[in-house]
Amino acid sequence: MDNKNSIARYIDALDRSFSAERLDRDLRHLTSEPHVASSPRNNELAQYVFDEWKACGLEDVRKAEYDVLLSFPERIVVEIAAPEKIALVLKEDGYPQDPDTLRGDVGLPYNAYSASGDITAPVVYANSGNPRDYDLLESLGVSLKGKIALVRYSEPYSYRGFKALTAQRRGLAALLVYSDPKEDGAARGPVFPDGPWGPMSHIQRGGIPFDFIYPGDPLTPGWASVPGAKRLPLGEAATVPAIISVPLSARDALPILRLMTGEAAPKEWQGALPLAYRLGGESPRVHLDVKMDNSVRRIVNVVGRISGSEDPDEIVLVGNHRDAWIYGGLDPSSGTACLMELARAFGRAAKAGFRPRRSVYFANWDAEEFTLTGSTEWGEENRDLLAKGLIAYLNVDSSASGEEFNVAAVPSLSRTILAALRDVADPATGKTVHERWKAGSGAKGAIATASGSGRINAIGSGSDHTVFLNHICAPALDMSFSGAYGVYHSVYDDYYWMTHFGDPGMRYTLALDRIWARIAVSLAAQPLVPLDYETYAVELKGYLEEWAKRFDPQRTKTVKLFGLVEEMRKAAAAIGPGAAGETPSATDIAPETRREANRLLIGIERDFALPDGIPGRAWFKHLVFGTRSTYEALLLPELTEAAEAGNEGGEAAAVTHLEEALVRVTARLLKIAGLIRGRAWS
Ligand SMILES: [Zn+2]
Asked: What per-residue confidence (pLDDT) applies to 291?
C-alpha cells in the first residue's frame, strides 16, 4: 500500500462492504435477550462474534478468557418502614408496543459491588451526593452518620462509584441513587415509549467500584486474571466499596421524598418531581436488605486481526464491549453491531487483496459494565506486545443515540480524526460530518467532557480505552453520535428505543463505521504513522496555561516547562505538516529508515509514562491524561492533584516528571526529523 491511490481504493472497498440492513440484523440479534457478563446468553453471543469473525476472514480469532470478581444480587429489599410501611416497586413498567419490556427475566436492579447488609435508618436527601452537597448539609447541622443518603444521578454525569465513595467517607450507612426527571426524564422531553427520555419507572443500574483507583478485576490490580493467577483477598481490594447502594426509579424515590418534613432545600437542589425537596427534619426511616453474591466468574473477550503485510507487530486496535446490563440497545449493542460490520469489511477486503502495512486488531470486550474488566485484563496480559507496538486504541462503546458527532481523543490523533470527518457525509444533511460538527454549539475554550461538538474533547475514563491510554500510555479515542438519551442502563435501552429514537435505519451507525474505517486505515496503511505531535504540543501548552492560571499566575514554577513545550512543538513541526488532513507518502525513504522513524513515532506517547504511576494511583501512569473520580478528564493528573492538595513537594516532583518527559519526547522527535527530513510528507 504505497500511495494515496491504493489507500483510497482500500477505503472504497471497505465502504462498499458496509450494510445498514446487516447492522440492523445484528442489532436485533444482539439485543434479543438480556446479556449481562458471564451469563449463558452473553457467552452465546461471544460464540456468535467468534464464528462471524472467523467466517469473514479475520485471522487468529480467539477467545481471551479471565476469571474475575463480578457482582450479582441475591436479594434486594427497599421499603419505607416509618412513619408508615410502604413497599417500593423496584421494577420497570412494561409496554405492549415493546414486548421486550414485558419480559419477567430482566433481574433485580442493583449497583454492582454494593456491600451486603440489613439496616433500617432515617433518610437524608443530599442532592447529587457530591462532597459539597454533604458540606452544605453539615454546615446546616444535619447529621449524616449512620443515615441513608438519597441522591440523584446528576447532569453533567458524575460517576456513581464516586457518589458511593463520598457517602462511605462521610459515614453514611447506605446510598440510594435515583433518576430525577429533571436530569433524564419528563422535564427533558417526551418519555419512552413516546420519546427518548426515561419514564418514571426507569432505573439506572450500574457498578460502583472505585475504578478511578484501578479498573479491572478488583482482585488482580495491575496483572491479568488468567486461570491460576494470584488473587488478593476480597478485604484487600481497594476498589470494592464498603457501603450498601441501590439504584431507584423516580417513582420509588417519590414517596420517600414526600415524607420528608425539614425546611426546603436550596433552589439548585430542587428536582422535577411534584413536591418541595427538603433538608433534615423528621425523615422517614427506610429498611434496606441487600444480599450480594460477589464471586469469581469466567468472562470472555473475543479478539481477531488482519495481519499487517510489512510490520505486523505494529498494531491499530479497535474495540467495543459486548456485555449489557439488560438488552443494551445503545450501550453497547449498537457499538457491537458497528464493530461487527467493521470487522466484516476488513475481512472481505483482505480476501480481495487489501491488506494494511500494519496489523489491525479487533476486540469485543466482556464485563465492561462491571469495572472495564475484560479490556483491562487483556491489556495487562498483553502489556509487552502493546507497549512495543500499539499505535492507537479506537473505542466505540455505543454508536449512535442521535446525530451529533462526538469524540474524545489524545491530540496526536486530531489530524487523522479531522481528515476522516471531512471524508464522510452526514446522513441527514448531506454535508460532511466535519461541517456539521464544526457548526455545532460546542463548549469552546472550556475543557469539555460532556457531549460537546465542534471540538475534540479531552479524554477521561468510563469505557474500555482506559487501560490503553492510562496504563499502557498509547494514543486513544472514544467516539459516537449522540442525542437525547434518558434510558441509560435501564430496561428501555433496547431495540425498540434504538429503532424509534437512537438511530432509525442505522444511518449514523453506518456513518460511524465509515469514520472508524478511515481512522484505522490511515494509522495502519500510511507509510509513516500519521501521529501528530505538533497539535499535541499546542494542546499541551493550553493545558499548562489553564493550570498556570490557577496555580502559578507568575509562571515561576512553569517557565522551563513552557520552554520545553515550545521546543517539542518546533521539533514536531519539522517532521510533519501542521495542517490537518495532509497525507504523507514517504515513498522515497528507504524502508529501514522509515521503519526506524515509525518505531520512534509509536513510542512517543509512552515517553509521557510515569513508571511508578501517579501518587496514590500507581495503575494510572500517564502524565498528561488522567481521570477524576467522576470519570471527567483530568489533565496533567500528577501536577493538578498535587496543586489542588496544596502539596508543594508533590507539585515540584510533577513539574520535574513533565520536564523529563518533554526532554525525552523532543529528543525522539529530533531523531525522527533527522531520519526523514524533507522527504517524508507530500
Ligand atoms: Zn458501554
From this structure: 98
